[in-house]
From TrEMBL, chain B:
<comment type="similarity">
    <text>Belongs to the peptidase U32 family. UbiV subfamily.</text>
</comment>
<keyword id="KW-0479">Metal-binding</keyword>
<keyword id="KW-0378">Hydrolase</keyword>
<dbReference type="InterPro" id="IPR001539">
    <property type="entry name" value="Peptidase_U32"/>
</dbReference>
<protein>
    <recommendedName>
        <fullName>Ubiquinone biosynthesis protein UbiV</fullName>
    </recommendedName>
</protein>
<dbReference type="GO" id="GO:0046872">
    <property type="term" value="F:metal ion binding"/>
</dbReference>
<keyword id="KW-0004">4Fe-4S</keyword>
<dbReference type="InterPro" id="IPR051454">
    <property type="entry name" value="RNA/ubiquinone_mod_enzymes"/>
</dbReference>
<dbReference type="GO" id="GO:0006744">
    <property type="term" value="P:ubiquinone biosynthetic process"/>
</dbReference>
<dbReference type="GO" id="GO:0051539">
    <property type="term" value="F:4 iron, 4 sulfur cluster binding"/>
</dbReference>
<keyword id="KW-0411">Iron-sulfur</keyword>
<keyword id="KW-0408">Iron</keyword>
<dbReference type="Pfam" id="PF01136">
    <property type="entry name" value="Peptidase_U32"/>
</dbReference>
<comment type="function">
    <text>Required for O(2)-independent ubiquinone (coenzyme Q) biosynthesis. Together with UbiU, is essential for the C6-hydroxylation reaction in the oxygen-independent ubiquinone biosynthesis pathway.</text>
</comment>
<keyword id="KW-0645">Protease</keyword>
<dbReference type="InterPro" id="IPR043693">
    <property type="entry name" value="UbiV"/>
</dbReference>
<dbReference type="GO" id="GO:0008233">
    <property type="term" value="F:peptidase activity"/>
</dbReference>
Length: 327, 301
């Protein structure tokens, strides 16, 4: 069976590009704080969502709507409306993280398929089966803290489909369990759908290079002619105990393309590509490559080598937690 | 308002570990959460001391509560989580896995590492048997107010992070091990060298975070000294204090006086800074533009 590739779309144009490039499934969100990529100029209006679903369905692709921030106390109606509007738009599933919202969706929109967002950080079979029992969750997006053998062990103990990240930005912390960004900037993934937001980034020329600051803290410094990576907090440069470096993670991105055969063997249903903030040409290129890779996998052929290297952030990639030594 | 002492987030040697609970038995606190929150590899070093600590606290009239791990992934972690309820004291879930593994119908409390951001989740947890919830430390005062009100209606006691380095993130990767060029499986318990966490500084040498194995904390010690009256009026039942080295029982006594009205707003912060001039305080998650901010800064400037 061909593994499903789940592709990012930050705009209607990216959605169409992903579908045309061979995406089985596209995920996207509404243009507000209900999803974890709440960036300026990104995401879908209600009309665009309806049109996007129509386009995808006409081409045999599915659309998942991410409503995966944690609803604000006193303002839950915004999130509930997003669930209702996803159903109206004809979405194939919603991707949720908050137990209260899952409970609401299960009660009020029982026919709308529910996926568990990576933001819920469900990292073992007990909790995954619990979400299935409590809220009828059909698929879980696994947090990026698990090795391939651990993923296989989870699949052996659950009927819930698993989806794993294979390409793009990489959280080093358990997703949905991280307040680093709100500590430094006041804006958090859980509450605002942003991490290390551009509004709080500042670049400063120094005598011999460029400092990158986030929320007033200098967390990256490069020489005059070096490329300056975006100052994402957990990939910043810090000093502890007399040692300076990327103490949490290097400025790398995830590329698990070569692990596709192992992930298939581990029982993974779907492969997720990060990057709703990316351009449609980037999305199209990544999707084409991954579609070729999963088709090759299904046909019992080797995965083509190194096609995506030039698209990776800072040119350096990692297979992250999928290899146990990453820990 | 009551005082709860949260789980010790750090890895202490067995003797100081036990000494903390002996001291807390004599301290003016109501509830003490103990057990391993951060890393399951630490537990064998003090596990056999937990029953005695529970008994000591019970004899002194304190309510002992057992915490779950913050991130449960391994088989043996699932097993130890499932066994928590067998100790016969209340369990504080800090990963929903612990809720999934609790005996049917058991009452439980919810720790600060479970995402309770809104009334629906609070209400769902109450329906599952939650009697007390310590809110996530990143919640602003406005959300605390709304949830304290909802908690009153549901009969769930609401607790707020009152003092201590704030747990900001948990990972599959051990940063203490990484800093020593090791992997988590071969960590050699590097985190034991830093019983209050290891300072992480920015490139301009500003204190910023603290490393604690797989956990990342704030460099600042959150301190709700200036919000005590507001939190009480909002219906918050308890403040949570997070253990640190030094005279922690004395620190608890200071907070007790503050809650009893014997000390005015700002007096706790002043006493803490006098005792430890190097620490920075914050209350920005409650009332500031970002978590690092400190509303007392202007007053003391």
């Amino acid at each position: 069976m061909v593994m499903e590739i789940v592709c990012p779309a930050g705009t209607p144009a990216a959605l169409r590009a992903a579908v045309k490039a061979g995406a089985h499934t596209v995920y996207c969100g509404f243009a507000d704080e209900t999803n974890a990529r709440n960036f300026p100029g990104l995401n879908f209006s209600r009309e665009e969502m309806q049109e996007g679903v129509r386009f995808a369905h006409a081409h045999g692709a599915k659309v998942l709507v991410a409503i995966n921030t944690y609803p604000r106390a006193g303002a839950e109606e915004i999130w509930r409306q997003a669930v209702a509007d996803s159903e109206t738009a004809g979405a194939d599933a919603v991707i949720l993280a908050d137990p209260g919202l899952l409970d609401y969706a299960a009660r009020n929109h029982p026919d709308l398929r529910r996926h568990l967002s990576v933001q819920a950080a469900a990292a073992n079979a007990d909790i995954i089966n619990f979400y299935a029992r409590a809220f009828g969750v059909k698929r879980v997006v696994l947090p990026r803290v698990l090795s391939v053998p651990e993923i296989a062990a989870i699949n052996a103990e659950t009927d819930v489909e698993t989806e794993v990240f294979v390409f793009g930005g990489l959280c080093v912390m358990a997703e949905g369990r991280c307040s680093l960004s709100s500590y430094a900037t006041g804006k958090s993934p859980n509450m605002n759908g942003v991490c290390s937001p551009a509004s709080h980034v500042e670049y400063r020329e120094t005598g011999d290079g460029l400092d990158a600051r986030l929320g007033g803290y200098t967390i990256h410094r490069v020489g005059r002619d070096e490329p300056a990576p975006y100052p994402t907090l957990c990939k910043g440069c810090f000093t502890a105990g007399g040692k300076t470096g990327h103490l949490f993670e290097d400025p790398v991105s995830l590329n698990a393309e070569q692990l596709i055969p192992q992930l298939a063997k581990a029982g993974v249903t779907a492969l997720k590509i990060e990057g709703r903030q990316r351009s449609r040409s980037y999305v199209a290129q990544v999707v084409r490559n991954f579609r070729a890779a999963v088709d090759a996998q299904a046909a019992g052929q080797p995965i083509p080598q190194g096609m995506l290297a030039s698209l990776s952030e800072g040119q350096a990639t990692t297979t992250g937690a999928y290899k146990k030594t990453w820990r | 308002m009551e005082l709860t002492v949260g789980a010790n987030q750090f890895f202490w040697k067995p003797e100081p570990w036990s000494a903390l609970y002996d001291q807390l038995a004599q301290a003016p606190v109501d509830r003490v959460v103990l057990g391993e929150l951060v890393c399951s590899k630490r537990l064998p070093f003090y596990q056999d001391r937990i029953p005695a600590a529970i008994t000591t606290l019970q004899k002194a009239g304190k309510q002992p509560v057992l915490t779950s791990l913050a991130l449960v992934t391994l088989k043996r972690e699932r097993k130890m989580t499932a066994e928590l309820a067998e100790m016969g004291v209340e369990v504080e879930i800090n990963d929903l896995t612990a809720l999934a593994l609790l005996p049917e119908g058991a009452k439980f409390s919810v720790g600060p590492l479970v995402n309770v951001y809104n009334e629906s989740t609070l209400s769902w947890l109450a329906g599952m048997g939650a009697t007390r919830v310590c809110l996530p430390p990143e919640l602003p005062l406005e959300a605390v107010r709304t949830l304290a009100q909802a908690g009153r209606d549901l009969g769930v006691a609401i607790e707020v992070w009152g003092y201590g380095r704030v747990p900001l993130a948990i990972s599959g990767r051990c940063y203490h091990a990484r800093r020593h060029g090791r992997t988590k499986d071969n960590c050699q318990f590097a985190c034991e060298e830093d019983p209050d966490g290891l300072d992480v500084r920015t490139l301009e040498n500003r204190s910023f975070l603290a490393m604690n194995g797989v956990q990342t904390l704030s460099d600042t010690h959150a301190c709700a000294d200036h919000q005590v009256e507001t939190l009480r009026d909002a219906g918050v039942s308890a403040l949570r204090l997070s253990p640190q080295t030094g005279d922690f029982a004395g620190l608890c006594a200071l907070w007790r006086k503050r809650l009893d009205g014997e000390l005015a707003a700002g007096a706790v912060a002043e006493a803490l800074q006098r005792a430890q001039p190097d620490i920075r305080l914050s209350d920005g998650f409650l009332t500031g533009a970002s978590g690092t901010e400190w509303s007392g800064a202007q007053a003391s400037a």
